[in-house]
Write a structure and sequence with these properties.
The complex is a heterodimer of chains A (498) and B (366). By secondary structure, chain A is of the alpha/beta class. Helices cover 48% and strands 18% of the residues of chain A. Chain A is built from 20 helices and 17 strands. In chain A, the strands form 5 sheets. Chain A has a 6-stranded mixed β-sheet with strand order 13-14-15-3-16-17, sandwiched between helices. Chain A has a 4-stranded antiparallel β-sheet with strand order 2-1-4-5, with helices on one face. In chain A, α2 runs antiparallel to α11. Chain A is elongated. The longest helix of chain B is centred in the N-terminal third of the chain and has 34 residues. The two termini of chain B are 13 Å apart. Chain B is globular. Chain B is 71% helix and 0% strand. Classes of the chains: A alpha/beta (498), B mainly alpha (366).
Chain lengths: 498, 366
Amino acid sequence: MALLSLRKLTMRFGGLTAVNGFDLEVEPNTIYSIIGPNGAGKTTVFNAVTGIYSPSSGEIVFNDRPLCHPMTWRVPVACVAVGLCMGVASLLLMANVDSLWRVAIKNNNDDEARQLSTAAAEFAKYDLNADGQVSLRELSDGAAVQPTNFLGHGDANDDGQISRTEYLRMMRRPFDWLQARREALRQLRGELGLLRRGNRWLIVPATSTQMLASALHLPQALTTRESYGEAIALAQEAGTFVEREGQQKFLSADGQRTLVSAPDADSAQIKLTQWKDVAAEQTNYRLNQWLALWGGMLVGGLGTYSTWQRSRLTPDVIAFAGIARTFQNIRLFHNMTVLENVLVGMDRSFSPHMFGMLFRSPAQRHQETQQRQRALKLLDFISLTSQQNHLAKNLPYGEQRRLEIARALASKPLLLLLDEPAAGMNPTESLELMHLIRLIRDTGTTVLLIEHHMKLVMDISDRIAVLDYGQKIAEGTPAEIRANPRVIEAYLGKEDVS
Amino acid sequence: MTHTMRHRLMPLVPELIGILVLLLFPALPLGWRALHLPEQVLFLPVQEFLDRVASQLPIIFILTILALGLNVIVGYTGLLHLGMGAFFGIGAYLTGILTIPAYPFECGFWLALVLSTAGAALAGVLLGTPTLRLRGDYLALVTLGFGEVVRFSLRNLEEITAGSRALNPIPPPNLRWLGLSSESWSNDMRPFYYLTLVLLIGVVWLLRNLERSRLGRAWVAIREDELAATCMGINAARAKLAAFAVGSALAGLAGSLYATKLTTTAGPDAYDFNRSIIVLACVILGGLGSIRGVIVGSMLLIGFDNIVAPMLDSAIQKANINPTGNRLLMFTNWRLLIFGLALVLMMRYRPNGLLPARRGVSEGAV
């Protein structure tokens, strides 16, 4: 069973096809080399396998699984969560956050301390007795204020006014003297507004009614008098026009309720139009809210999903699956020590607990020492133990190459991709490298190699593939490749018969 | 055992001496007064200097925490962040909202400290998530823009942040079990001094731990070579988000302390671009990615800004050198020029900062 198979791998960059329909089967525990002239697309294959590029077409199967994130329960949960957040956020963006804050938090609180102290003196002027009658004890200026002046809205009627008894009943339940007095006082000062929700009346501070009104783009008078639901219903109803008791009235479709009443037909008509405008505005606003909520949720959820889908081939996920690589131009972490470079390669074998890391828990410390031992063993393997505390950039070239291999090995890969490891090495060094690669193969890691150094390739490879202009022109054992005329042609050019 | 202990403690000697000096410092101005020296002219400037240092050190500690937070993002992870003032402001305003009596929360200093830290971290993650793909200049621009957005939001959300009037009064921390009444926080500089010092030491300890952990290595690896780091299995997005979260959390912590120290959130303009840049200058002056360097850098820069410059100004005024109020003779006006000059000289002669990070040396001891 192949460890890594590339099926019809194609990489296109704009109009340029770097790799064209490349097939590759790497058996476990072998050394497989990819050779070819410069610009044949070898490094592009490596980049596609390690997820730096995602292939234009074709499939990469590693360890019998295509390289991708597994779909777990976390993905839909994350999509839904992000969607909900986006929905609520876009809803909030539509509303006036400042006013909402005032209505929701500030108004319940900010004036209470201030008002209670000043109000205490004023409360003493009024008596609210058990059956809900508010009577005036005394007035400083002597003017008679009838209780009806602040409580009386006449009888309950279709204009959305509240009856005195209803108001008092509301105030009595639950009967809280302080609350009742405060509300009575606020009503007296014109600080209370009434808001009708369905068939319930809410007593809210007048300022918050104003705020709600401005937040919802409604004329304040209407918010205090009518519920939004009623306004919407109105817009959908065909009113019946009647004349009754010297008043022009629009009745609701069932003829039960008066929608609008006015002294003459014209103003009644105007009023009705105004009402309908308001109702239309309301409907519009609600629709916008609805759109904002669902739009935000859709954009958030689908965005998260597509981001997740596109992120399926990131290098770190592929490294986690068991593919490690080195680079053609050495990419060490120059300002870190040799030991740290290897420890970074072991990243995934450390526990991810933030608290352990923050407080350096004993478990964390134990793990750190253990991993350090392992890292030192690896450094021993490439004989760099004595330089463990040197900065990586201060190492000579050949040692940097070896360190990069050790760093790649630190993630315990199943497959190691080496991109021209012998480049720039002298014959002794490349002999040592050959020995090292064999050792790596013997410890159970499969090696996929790009190399120009033919002696090294022919000596250690179990199989070789030859790429030229992005296409595989030959594959086989070193002996087969050496004898293949197409390979010789690719490297040396065609013999001109002239 | 003792040998290894000594081996371990040796690299920490400068820190230990620093901590000792700072712990004993408040005794100095007080002890000076206790000596009841005759008020000679010679002693007056010294006394004045010590008093000013004592009153400004808590602010310096707080801004050092802020600089350490920025160091996580700029120094370790290598993401140029120009909007740190915003997170400082978010921390300060969250503390204001959570503690002042005008709002129903009034949850007290300690809970507010935790919540503002967490809130700023959340804001950092929210800023970080969409900007992960940006690098270098682009990220710098986005963070700079975010800083301005936050400042203008703070100014325009009148109902929430009281606009340019600032939220006050922020009550002092509750430490009654230590016998500290609320008056002692305003009358005596010591409670705040020790509170901020202890928190600074705590932050340094946590950052040292992080620096030597998996996450710290991942940050530096990303700074050094992001592609190689991801190929080694580091989830760069997550590590960057963690850097943003930790850095912003520290900024939030600093903001919370700052607001509590001043007893007011000090208006949106205290959290503008200037603040971000001066903190960045502290980090660069001290040495990117070096905790010691950042501490020294912010002590020098902010000490110069808050202690030396005002003292020189008052000295000029006292000596009556500048009776006409000529702007060129006011030292405060030369402040930024001197900052700039110092940074230019730094870049020329010590491009890695005053105390550059010495990776590997402390590692070898463990």
